[in-house]
Amino acid sequence: MNSVIIFLIVTGLILFLATTVGLLRFPDFYSRMHAAGKGDTLSSLLMLGGLALYEFHEINVATLLVGAKILLIAVFIFMASPTATHAITDAGYESGVKPWQKEKTASEDEG
Amino acid sequence: MDAFFLGIAVTLCLMMLLALYRAISGPTAIDRIMGVNVIGTKTTILLVLIGTLYHRVDMFVDIALAYALLNFIVTIGASRYFQHHKNLQPRGYGFRFKAEEDK
């Protein structure tokens, strides 16, 4: 039981490490959003799943209720985080943020 | 098991500081919204972790649920506000792009 919990939480932590590295090192807004959206959602799900499993170590009404609430947070994040990611990306696209390109054109060098 | 959760919480805080760098110095405004969104999602997990450490999860899980809802609403509202701003693309670095536009 404990090994499963440790595996879930450490996997979530590694995914969040990948998210932060992508957030810091990717060159433009869209690729940063790509790293943040997916890694953030899955690491949240894994860590909340591990914490809910830790709540179920003894079964009674109180721990079942708390574990169900943690799973409710996980379900909410699973729906809300991709929606928020899409909303932010749409805001960037609508306001004309340019995607990153490898070679700079002359107009970008002036600006 | 408590030491494990404490280590996870401290590591999560350090990684949230890395995301805070993007939230502070992100070139555009929506980069900052993105960084704040990542930090808010992780704060939800950090609240459940703190509740597990203090053996009061029944209290902290409600706070975490409310925080997740608030974080979602803040992100949606801020991204809708910036949807048709035409001057998100920075001209200089970070903080200066609004001032240069006024000239």
Give structural notes.
The complex is a heterodimer of chains A (111) and B (103). Chain A has 111 residues and is mostly helical. In chain A, 81% of the residues lie in helices and 0% in strands. Chain A has one domain. The model of chain A has no long low-confidence stretch (mean pLDDT 87). Chain B is mainly α and 103 residues long. Chain B has one domain (2-82). In chain B, helix 2 (29-54) runs antiparallel to helix 3. The radius of gyration of chain B is 17 Å and the shape is elongated. Chain B starts with a helix and ends with a helix. Mean pLDDT of chain B is 84; it is low at 92-97.
Helices, strands, pairings?
The complex is a heterodimer of chains A (about 110) and B (about 100).
Chain A: H1 2-25, H2 29-55, H3 61-94, H4 106-110
Helix pairs in contact in A: 1-2, 2-3
Chain B: H1 2-25, H2 29-54, H3 57-81, H4 97-102
Helix pairs in contact in B: 1-2, 2-3
Gist?
The complex is a heterodimer of chains A (111) and B (103). Chain A is mainly α and 111 residues long.
Structural class of chain B comes to: mainly alpha
Number of DSSP E strands of chain B = 0
Shape of chain A: elongated
β-strand number of chain A? 0
Q: State the helicity of chain B in percent bands.
A: over 70%
> Largest interface, and how many residues on either side?
A-B, 47 and 47 residues
Tally of DSSP helical segments of chain B: 4
Question: Mean of the pLDDT scores of chain A?
Answer: 87
Largest sheet of chain A: none
- What is the oligomer described by this structure? heterodimer
Key traits:
heterodimer; A: 111 residues; mainly alpha; 0% strand; B: 103 residues; 79% helix
